[in-house]
């Protein structure tokens, strides 16, 4: 007999009598009530064991974390809080779980503790909800692009180019411990060891995506990217996933429209299809808020916040306007910004970004037309000769969620910008070819997937929204 899932059994539309289910024991109460979870839903199903007719040895092995196979009858439940339950006919222990050593006990564990047990943390409600939402978000993203005529392309993970020109890359090397490559001084040198070439893990698939946009029209990538910056914040990872659409014949304004429509659609999809997990996480946040001082509590509930983003236009503000706002504001009555914005041309610190979205505009903000010298080489120079057609989308509680731009499509201007930054034309000959043969206005953006998952789940540390976080301190598992 094929197994059922908890989700199927709890669904109101389906009526089963004899059922067969496999899962993990969450709790076992009074030698009688097994709360069984199989990951298909947040909810457990209650399975009632006939302890008088079950041998003592088996009863002892029904412990938190054990894998079991249950056959029985699905009946209406007499108990509170559940519509149905299983009257167990047979219970087979598939895998024991030693209660003395099993780390995930039925109590509240700190997220720090669970991070150290990342291989087991999806056995808790919070992490299973987060990871189900992460999966649903990926699917919603692919669905959006597929519905809008985009092709999904795979860009290389090992690459010779530094797409962002920021030099924050991990080198790739063919480890040959017996015959390590040596430099002139006889020192081990792995830098050119991708079969004699220098390569790194990609920081972004954008440049390769541009090549396909210039033939297939509308494309996107969704893959892992790597940054070697030593940032130990709750919003940075060394390995994160990025969604990067790239579209031919699209200018910056069109790029903003696309990003806004895309994010709203994905959030609507999640609200429609993942209510259970969202409500659970919302309640978790409400409980967490109660432990905080009044000022630090959130002014909106999780689902309300998602609806707010869907229902309101993102505020579009130029960098220059934003600097004026920041110059004329104080973050609160007494304090000034830690990092003062005095001059046009300085990059915004996250405290400025947060002020703009959380205090000033109180909604997602698209900042555009940044000074050229603080942005990447490939961005389209404006007629003022000072600013580029860049856009960053800032979200409350998150800060920068999206970075994008209209790309420089003019060969000579691009060459000049590369020369100024000492980027070798030979390394990017293929990228320059796009400007030689049938060049056209085109644009795209990169959305940090984990930052989106943070926003949707209300989790406050990026390490808690990716299965196995890689940070400067941690690459275990
Ligand atoms: O702003 P970034 O660096 O832009 C790019 O890489 C462009 N090539 C994208 C494009 O136009 N196709 O990164 C894009 C987004 C950021 O806005 C942020 O959400 C996320 O990626 N991001 C990170 N997320 C987690 N950890 C990090 N270290 C991140 N660095 C960037
Ligand atoms: Mg950026």
What portion of the residues fall into strands of 2 or more residues? 15-25%
Number of helices: 13
Distance between the termini: 36 Å
Q: Unreliable segments (pLDDT under 50, ≥5 consecutive)?
A: none
Q: Output the helix-strand order.
A: HEEEHEEHHEEEHEEHHHEHHEEEHHEH
Roughly how much helix do the residues carry, as a percent range?
A: 25-40%
Mean of residue pLDDT values: 93
Main pleated-sheet profile: 8 strands, mixed
- Cα-atom radius of gyration: 27 Å
Chemical compounds bound to the protein: 4-amino-1,4-dioxobutan-2-aminium adenosine-5'-monophosphate, magnesium ion
If classified by CATH, what would the architecture of the largest domain be?
A: 2-Layer Sandwich
CATH superfamily of the largest domain, by name, is Bira Bifunctional Protein, Domain 2
Number of domains: 2
The coarse silhouette is globular
Strand order of the largest sheet: 6-9-10-15-14-13-12-11
Question: Under the CATH scheme, which class of the largest domain?
Answer: Alpha Beta
Please characterize this protein's 3D structure.
It is an enzyme of class 6 (ligase). 31% of the residues lie in helices and 22% in strands. By secondary structure, the protein is an alpha+beta fold. It has two domains: 97 residues, Nucleic acid-binding proteins (OB fold (Dihydrolipoamide Acetyltransferase, E2P), Beta Barrel); 306 residues, Bira Bifunctional Protein, Domain 2 (BirA Bifunctional Protein, domain 2). The protein has an eight-stranded mixed sheet, sandwiched between helices. Strands 1-2-3-5-4 form a five-stranded mixed beta barrel. A two-stranded antiparallel sheet has the order 7-8. The model has no long low-confidence stretch (mean pLDDT 93).
């Amino acid at each position: 007999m094929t197994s059922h899932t908890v989700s199927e059994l709890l669904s109101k539309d389906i009526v089963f009598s004899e059922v067969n289910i496999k899962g993990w024991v969450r709790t076992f109460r009074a030698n009688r009530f097994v709360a069984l979870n199989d990951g298909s839903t947040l909810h457990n199903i209650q399975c009632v064991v006939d302890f008088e007719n079950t041998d003592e040895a088996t009863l002892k092995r029904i412990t938190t974390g054990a894998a079991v196979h249950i056959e029985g009858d699905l009946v209406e439940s007499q108990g509170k809080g559940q519509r149905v339950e299983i009257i167990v006919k047979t219970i087979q222990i598939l895998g024991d779980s030693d209660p003395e050593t099993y780390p995930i006990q039925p109590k509240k564990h700190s997220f720090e503790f669970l991070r150290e047990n990342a291989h087991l943390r999806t056995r808790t409600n919070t992490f299973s909800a987060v990871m189900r939402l992460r999966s649903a978000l990926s699917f919603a993203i692919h669905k959006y692009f597929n519905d809008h005529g985009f092709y999904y392309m795979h860009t290389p993970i090992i690459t010779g180019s530094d797409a962002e020109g920021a030099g924050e890359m991990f080198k790739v090397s063919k480890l040959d411990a017996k015959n390590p490559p040596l430099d002139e001084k006889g020192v081990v040198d792995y830098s050119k060891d991708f079969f004699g070439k220098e390569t790194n893990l990609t920081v972004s698939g954008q440049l390769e995506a541009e090549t396909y946009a210039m033939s297939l029209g509308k494309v996107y990538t969704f893959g892992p990217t790597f940054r070697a910056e030593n940032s130990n914040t709750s919003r940075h990872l060394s390995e994160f996933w990025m969604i990067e659409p790239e579209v031919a014949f699209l200018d910056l304004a069109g790029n903003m429209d696309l990003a806004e429509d895309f994010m709203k659609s994905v959030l609507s999809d999640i609200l429609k299809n993942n209510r259970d997990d969202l409500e659970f996480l919302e309640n978790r946040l409400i409980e967490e808020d109660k432990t905080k001082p009044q000022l630090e509590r959130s002014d909106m509930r999780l689902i309300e916040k998602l609806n707010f983003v869907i229902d309101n236009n993102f505020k579009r503000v130029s960098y220059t306007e934003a600097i004026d706002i920041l110059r004329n504001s104080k973050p609160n009555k007494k304090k000034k910004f830690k990092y003062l914005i005095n001059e046009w041309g300085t990059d915004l610190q996250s405290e400025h970004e947060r002020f703009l979205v959380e205090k000033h505009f109180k909604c997602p903000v698209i900042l555009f037309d940044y000074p050229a010298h603080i942005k990447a080489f490939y961005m389209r120079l404006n007629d003022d000769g000072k600013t580029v057609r860049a856009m960053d989308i800032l979200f409350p509680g998150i800060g920068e969620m999206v970075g994008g731009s209209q790309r420089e499509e003019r060969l000579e201007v691009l060459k000049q910008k590369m020369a100024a930054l000492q980027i070798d034309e030979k390394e990017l000959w293929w990228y320059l070819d796009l400007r030689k043969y049938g060049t056209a206005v085109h644009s795209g953006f990169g959305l940090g997937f984990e930052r989106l998952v943070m926003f949707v789940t209300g989790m406050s540390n990026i390490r808690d929204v990716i299965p196995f976080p890689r940070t400067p301190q941690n690459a275990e598992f």
